Amino acid sequence: MALEVEWKGHTLEVSGNWTWRWLYLAPTYELRINGEFVDRTSGPRVRPRLQAIVEDNDGEVYHVDAELLSLIGYNPTCEVNIDGEVVHSGRVRVENFLNPFLVLFILISTGVMLYLGPEVIRQYWPPM
């Protein structure tokens, strides 16, 4: 579930997802306005920022800024600013939260198997 903000007839949506790009160790955040993708950021950052420029029906231009505080990527706080004024703040639910734990489990298991070697593993593995 993404963080959604209704503002002057526009829907601003901030979402997060654990993707393969950073080996599932850093989430990717996206900003969508009226369902249209406008900005994405990812990587091991504590304060990722999403930015966009919105033109209103009257021709006025607004600067949209969504700043997240993401320590471990679990329910980061998000503050949506429009022209420097805080419009909404809340938490973003990041999808696929188990992916980093699965990757870490696979890496640790592989490391243990390589450290022990095939002889020790065969000793405890039943014969086929």
Automatic annotation (TrEMBL):
Transmembrane stretches, start-end: 97-118
Superkingdom, taxonomy of origin: Bacteria
Keywords: Membrane, Transmembrane, Transmembrane helix
Protein name, as recorded: Thioredoxin family protein
Originating species: Persicimonas caeni
Biological classification of the source: Bacteria, Deltaproteobacteria, Bradymonadales, Bradymonadaceae, Persicimonas
